[in-house]
Amino acid sequence: MKESLDFIYKEQKELGKFGGIASLLGWDQMTYMPSAGGEERSDQLSLISRLAHERVISDDFYHHITRLNEQHTYETLGKKDQMVVKRLLDDVEKSRKIPSSFVEKMSKTTTLAYMAWQEAKTQNKYKHFAPHLEKVIGLQREYCDYMRLPGHPYNSLLDDYEEGMTVAKLQTEFSFLKPKLVELLQKITASKRYEKQQELSIKADKIKQQEISMFLFQKLGLTHDKTRLDESAHPFTTTIGDDDVRITTNYNHDNPLFSFFSTVHEAGHALYELGLPQNELKDTVLSDTPSLGLHESQSRFWENMIGRSEPFWSYFYPVFKKTYPDELRLMDPITWYRFINQVKPSLIRVEADELTYCLHVILRFELELLLIEGKVTVTELPSVWNQKMNEYLSVVPQTDQEGVLQDMHWSGGDFGYFPTYAIGTIYAAQLYYQLTKEHPKITNEIGWGEFSTTLQWLRTHIHCHGRTLTADEIIKNTCGEGLNANVFVTYLKDKYYQLYDLS
Amino acid sequence: MKESLDFIYKEQKELGKFGGIASLLGWDQMTYMPSAGGEERSDQLSLISRLAHERVISDDFYHHITRLNEQHTYETLGKKDQMVVKRLLDDVEKSRKIPSSFVEKMSKTTTLAYMAWQEAKTQNKYKHFAPHLEKVIGLQREYCDYMRLPGHPYNSLLDDYEEGMTVAKLQTEFSFLKPKLVELLQKITASKRYEKQQELSIKADKIKQQEISMFLFQKLGLTHDKTRLDESAHPFTTTIGDDDVRITTNYNHDNPLFSFFSTVHEAGHALYELGLPQNELKDTVLSDTPSLGLHESQSRFWENMIGRSEPFWSYFYPVFKKTYPDELRLMDPITWYRFINQVKPSLIRVEADELTYCLHVILRFELELLLIEGKVTVTELPSVWNQKMNEYLSVVPQTDQEGVLQDMHWSGGDFGYFPTYAIGTIYAAQLYYQLTKEHPKITNEIGWGEFSTTLQWLRTHIHCHGRTLTADEIIKNTCGEGLNANVFVTYLKDKYYQLYDLS
């Protein structure tokens, strides 16, 4: 037993190291790597992920885990060891369901699909991408066949990102949420304020944006001994070690708000990663997030519930105005607050406002289901996409570049991933509701630019649990109920009724 | 045979990947890693080096190499395969001589010794470091016992850095070189010019230093698609992939020449790495340097033979003056050229001028020999150090911080490494002599800030050979003779007789 325990803890620790190394390879690729280094980098990443995968599915590892899981042994284990064994067994059995040949096929297919997508997007030629997408979808179905979770085949895809989530549960929430969002959106677009709403163009050089991002970084509680803020084409957060979590942003000259909000968003991810258990759970499978939805709840919480709130801007408006005195010259704080919360149905998810964002996500979820079920073919996909865009957002892409080709996720085979964006957004609203209930004066603190109570609350309610509980359990323990889109809808109504003078 | 060939080529390729990954981990540690990431980074590096070492000494690998090396098989191999097999067999047999327990003991001992050295240096307490050094030296002797190269035990240490080099050969060169250097130094320090020589203090902000380093970087032929220039406490070059070679420098406010010359030095290393064979030798043991001395010959060539030469500064003086107009206001080009070539015996090797540099190196070599031979004890070491400093350079450290504790090499167990600094310096002079013989007008080109002929010459004579030849063979083929300190002495005499008006 001692031998098996030693083995599985050593193995978890080394798997953690592989993960950190892969993260560094990826971080460098996106930030500082000279362009010609790409080919070799891809080989280096493959090598590390292959070595890690071999460890996960090795017979030795499985043997030790199953030995510890035998009833008479299991009963003698401490509580932590029991949790570790259960989690590991689930993870490893899942990985062992997938033949190595499939992993290889998937990797090759998505590499080609990604290249085809890039070309297709540049040239606006969906046809060029379609046969690759066809293959990717075929492989998704094959994957579901290996996994065979109960219920809808898509459950097997969902489960990789959001353990325990099902199509049935999501459909319940989304079928409630979608019409509410569409209805609110229509009210807004029919309002006088919307009619008068003007686009404001702020231009800002990189240095100014960097200054303000760095100020934010520190204000939100990130410190330079454990975190960095760098630049990359697409903002991301990555964990290289327990005490080395890095975020990136992108400085867009014509839209300094992009770097601002993406810094807040990624800071939310980083604060979570840094808050994961470092005690006796360090270097185990339990010192991790239970789901991407929960992870996204942290970034969306900081980005939206805090970063787009009135109290937040009562602190940040003067800071912003100091950095951009000319641009904000004619705007009072309330005009500015309205401005950064403008609703505007648009084509691209990553540019969407807080209200329309989830409609983009629901659209993807519905399309993924239809594709997996075979009810929509790859050929039909662009027109179904456009129909749904029109139906939900009243905008129609003029080209596939702006539509079905807009992002790379499908080329990479990431089916089942999109819903986590909406799950996280809903969780974020639920958490904020609960926080204000427990700390009715929290908005005062936020208005002073003081976030420590908020962070501490997230630390003790969310972060510290790591993967000892599921996302659902953590949210239930914290908020008294699981995923509930109604809380999100109430939040949106309160916010936008006020902003757009609706009644 | 096909199976064995496939195996050894695949293994070399993956070992190359491990090497690149380790380089990235190291590069990041020295440049961008948040400070708290250090502990985990050290674990990640250990993991990668252990995995790579296990591959090198694996029975499988050895089995395939020896099978290919059997006469009847070997004879059927192509020339490249034959070279690869020979080199691999040598490398692997060498690695297999060392028990894994020893590797581990060495790693633990040097980790502790490094920490002790840091503390000892900060507090100027040699006694604190001495017992650790004692252990390190014991392990060096043990290493020599495993290796058992012919002749002096120290040959086994030398060979790791400079294949084929021996104590006997070095003693021949150094016993010629040392008195010549001391004699020339004494002539200089007795000269009128030396007496009048003034220290010039230039201060420069980082931005200016960065600008000029970046200009240099490009002028010397480095390009941003394959190279980067970053900042670290100690300048270094590292190869992360065949097309991803990075250099660093350090910006010292009180000495902008440090970043200037270190950039030239590291650029020399990087140009060599980028010039290593990329053809059919790519991803083999032959696409590497045969020795650190040869590597250092490239950095010292660019730093000294080019970077401290009169033609080089006839191009760079105006550039420098444009960046530092105030500082260079009162200096004409020849005064500036004299200034950057000032001889000044000093305590610290890394700050030494071109003439005294090798005396520091010879001192270390002699001390290492005495320590390995047991003729000087660890307790006696500081006083022997000081005696020799006085004898060769006429300066005596006032503290051990400036003396025996000045750098970390010994704490890391890098015995046998110092001589490569002198070997590289001598080779550099030989190469420059040969270059000017073959291209008598090369100084004109250099004077125009044009280095392509020089680089091309190094590419075809040195870089392209990789490890298909030994350093000695490469130098012999290029210069008509092996290591010859006399060429270096002649170069120094020519240069310093003119600079100090000697006769």
Low-pLDDT windows of residues of chain A: none
Q: Strand fraction band of chain A?
A: under 5%
Overall mean pLDDT of chain A stands at 96
The pair of chains with the biggest contact is: A-B, 34 and 34 residues
Shape category of chain A: globular
- The ordered H/E elements of chain A are HHHHHHHHHHHEEEHHHHHHHHHHH
Q: Main sheet of chain A, how many strands, which sense, barrel?
A: 3 strands, mixed
Q: How would you describe the oligomerization state of the chains in this entry?
A: homodimer
Rg of Cα set of chain A: 23 Å
Helical percentage of chain A = 55-70%
Lateral arrangement of strands in the main beta sheet of chain A: 1-3-2
Question: What this model shows, in words?
Answer:
The structure is a homodimer of 503-residue chains. By secondary structure, chain A is mainly α. Chain A has a domain at 1-96. The first copy, chain A, has helices spanning 2-31, 38-56, 59-69, 71-74, 79-96, 100-123, 126-147, 155-161, 167-189, 192-196, 206-219, 256-275, 292-306, 310-323, 333-340, 357-373, 381-393, 419-438, 442-447, 452-461, 471-479, 485-499, and strands spanning 227-231, 237-241, 244-249. In chain A, a hairpin with a 2-residue loop joins strand 2 (237-241) and strand 3. In chain A, helix 12 packs across helix 13 (292-306). The longest helix of chain A is centred in the first third of the chain and has 30 residues, at 2-31. Chain A is globular and about 70 Å long. The model of chain A has no long low-confidence stretch (mean pLDDT 96).
Please outline what is shown here.
Chain A is mainly alpha-helical. Helices cover 64% and strands 3% of the residues of chain A.
